[in-house]
Amino acid sequence: MADSLAPPGKEMLMVAWQLRKYFPLRGGVLSSHIGDVRAVDGVSFDLRRGETVGLVGESGCGKTTVGRLMLRLIEPSGGHTFFQPPPEVARRLTEIRDELRKLNPLGTETLAPALKAGAGSTDPTVRASRALLKELDQFADQYSLYRLSPAKMRKLRGKLQIVFQDPFSSLSPRMLVRDIVSEPLTIHHWGNRKQRYERVAELLTSV
């Protein structure tokens, strides 16, 4: 998935960094691990204040799993979700991502064996990648949702909410936009129906 090209200056709310979720396949008499279903494999994007990010794809492609990973409703197989990182950290995360992409156009997974081999590698790409990933890991210790304790996650639940919307229900809404916007006026007994709808029309025209 391509990274969002959000305009600079807006507060960074969340950063999805190479999210992965593999579900194990088991078979045989002993239910041995025989493979994985890669529900989500390397999804990255940014979400800034005032933005809406839409995940579009066929049924079963992993959209719901991404949402659950973002909120840590399920544990990831890899990657991070950063929530409200400070501006300087958000900026550095973007720089690290860009630098890793230049060093490893096919992804850091292609260097996995070399990265795990220890610090003795003389390959400049491996050494540079390892340094960047170490810096990323330090940020993750402070800001990744996946490094938070259960107690800290519970405190964040009020800020992190997930809404599932059936697209077919959107085609047959229970309420029209004018009814939704005029509802506060109705509750406070402001004007009659015609006056409320006229007021709503003015509001919708001005925004």
TrEMBL record:
<dbReference type="GO" id="GO:0055085">
    <property type="term" value="P:transmembrane transport"/>
</dbReference>
<keyword id="KW-0067">ATP-binding</keyword>
<dbReference type="InterPro" id="IPR050319">
    <property type="entry name" value="ABC_transp_ATP-bind"/>
</dbReference>
<dbReference type="GO" id="GO:0005524">
    <property type="term" value="F:ATP binding"/>
</dbReference>
<dbReference type="InterPro" id="IPR027417">
    <property type="entry name" value="P-loop_NTPase"/>
</dbReference>
<keyword id="KW-0813">Transport</keyword>
<dbReference type="GO" id="GO:0016887">
    <property type="term" value="F:ATP hydrolysis activity"/>
</dbReference>
<dbReference type="InterPro" id="IPR003439">
    <property type="entry name" value="ABC_transporter-like_ATP-bd"/>
</dbReference>
<feature type="domain" description="AAA+ ATPase">
    <location>
        <begin position="49"/>
        <end position="201"/>
    </location>
</feature>
<protein>
    <submittedName>
        <fullName>Oligopeptide/dipeptide ABC transporter, ATPase subunit</fullName>
    </submittedName>
</protein>
<dbReference type="Pfam" id="PF00005">
    <property type="entry name" value="ABC_tran"/>
</dbReference>
<dbReference type="InterPro" id="IPR003593">
    <property type="entry name" value="AAA+_ATPase"/>
</dbReference>
<comment type="similarity">
    <text>Belongs to the ABC transporter superfamily.</text>
</comment>
<keyword id="KW-0547">Nucleotide-binding</keyword>
